[in-house]
Amino acid sequence: MPELVEANVKLVCERPEKLMRSITSVKCLSLCLYGSMLEHRIEFDQLVQLELCECSPDWWDLLTWMLENSPKLQVLKLNNCKERFYCFVKDIVGRWREPSCVPECLMYHLNTFEWKCYNGEPEEKRVVAYILKNATELKTLAISAAKLYQWEITRGQREELVALPRASSSCQLLVD
Questions:
Q1: Cβ(47)–Cβ(25) below 8 Å
Q2: DSSP string, 64-125
Q3: Interstrand relation of 140-145 and 172-175 (parallel, antiparallel or unpaired)
Q4: What is the domain partition of the chain in residue ranges?
Q5: What is the pTM (predicted TM-score) of this model?
Q6: pLDDT tens digits, one per residue of 10-19
Q7: Does domain 6-175 have CATH number 1.10.8?
Q8: Pick from 26, 25, 24: which is nearest to 38 by CA?
């Protein structure tokens, strides 16, 4: 689908490669992928905005995979599914695997990072720290607590986030 500009994909599937290859021309992608992780190199060379659902137990791998394969990414949003019936789990499985080298999108393009269901888990803090440390063009990093679970970001957690090193001197950190 070379003319596809925007896609909203919610998929429970063992092998999503065929679908993912068909939407590589998108500029804006909302992705909720529950199933086997993508192993193949599929580049989203036009993608500038990604909204990634964190409902899959191994969504960490999908995040890394998308960062590595979206060189022009400017906006990254992490959320839970809007349709609660579709969302199976929120629990984190394993540890986040940082990209083997800093993705091109972080070095040159990412300017907005929003996380709407932040829980304050150590692995989540690692993701935020990695983005702040490597996103040289980051203008805004907005973090909101997972209100659905009656959780709030504590003052200490807020101070920890504010104290994290930043690659971009103009980055504004918004913590709600």
A1: no
A2: HHHHHT-TT--EEEEE--SSTTT-------S-----SS--HHHHHT--EEEEEEE---HHHH
A3: parallel
A4: 6-175
A5: 0.89
A6: 877 777 778 8
A7: no
A8: 24
